[in-house]
Specification:
Structural class: mainly alpha
CATH superfamily of one domain: Zinc/RING finger domain, C3HC4 (zinc finger)
Strand order of the largest sheet: 1-2
Number of strands: 4
Radius of gyration: 61 Å
CATH architecture of one domain: 2-Layer Sandwich
Bound molecules: zinc ion
Largest sheet: 2 strands, antiparallel
Strand content: under 5%
Order of helices and strands: HHEEEEH
Number of helices: 3
Oligomer: single chain
CATH topology of one domain: Herpes Virus-1
Mean pLDDT: 86
Shape: rod-shaped
CATH class of one domain: Alpha Beta
Length: 232
């Protein structure tokens, strides 16, 4: 409740600041009452009551005719109650078109304050309701954004996974080609070694043949020499 009163007070002082430049109490009351005041108020139509004692604090009225006597009978111009001076020390505008302030009793003063508070309370509630509506709309928008973002993330993740899978496949394929090339190199090395060995063998055979050829040539020469000697 105190929080509500504080927000009402804040609303009152804010509207006062926005609409008022001076410090006149009368102008302030006029401004504050404006939202709850009727266009016109017939003060002459209010039945002014008579009583022996104040209808609020019940103090007995004095019959002495002194203008400033605090216990002489006064009347509230709003409800007509017979009240003492102390129970009617507030002056208020009773209609929007009023140019003067009227004596009102404490009960009417409280009642008018309550009207004003209720009006301010309603204004604050309406503002809060509007704000809640706005926040709800924002919430719906955020929820939609969240769903869309999640969908985008899922799509992006799927693309990334596909990409990674494709790269793994490419890597496997390259590894296979590399291992095939290594096998080919090994085979070629083996073939080269085999050829090298065959060349060595052939070179050895040629050397052996040359030795044999020389030996045969020597033998042939020897035979020729012996033949010539025999002929002579
Ligand atoms: Zn009184
Ligand atoms: Zn009154």
């Amino acid at each position: 409740m105190s929080a509500l009163m504080m927000s009402c007070d804040a609303a009152i002082s804010q509207s006062f600041r926005h609409n008022h430049n001076g410090n006149c109490q009368q102008s302030q009351n006029r401004l504050l009452d404006q939202p709850t005041l009727p266009q016109t108020f017939d003060v002459k139509g209010v039945k002014m009551l008579e009583a022996e004692q104040c209808m609020i604090c019940e103090i007995a009225f004095t019959r002495k005719l002194k203008v400033l006597n605090r216990t002489s009978m006064k009347n509230c111009k709003r409800c007509g109650r017979a009240v003492c001076d102390q129970c009617s020390d507030q002056r208020r505008q009773l209609a929007l078109q009023d140019t003067t302030l009227h004596r009102i009793c404490d009960k009417c003063d409280t009642e008018m304050d309550n009207f004003r508070l209720r009006r301010n309370h309603e204004d604050v509630l309406a503002a809060q309701k509007k704000k809640i509506e706005m926040l709800n709309n924002q919430l719906v928008q955020l929820e939609e954004d969240k769903v869309k973002l999640e969908e985008d993330c899922r799509t992006e993740l799927r693309d990334l996974q596909n990409n990674v899978r494709a790269r793994y496949a490419k890597r496997d394929e390259l590894n296979e080609r590399l291992s095939s090339l290594k096998t080919q190199i090994t085979n070629q090395n083996n073939s080269r070694n085999l050829l090298h060995k065959q060349i060595c063998d052939l070179e050895n055979a040629i050397a052996d043949l040359e030795v044999e050829s020389n030996r045969l040539m020597t033998k042939q020469n020897l035979i020729q020499t012996q033949t010539i000697e025999l002929e002579h």
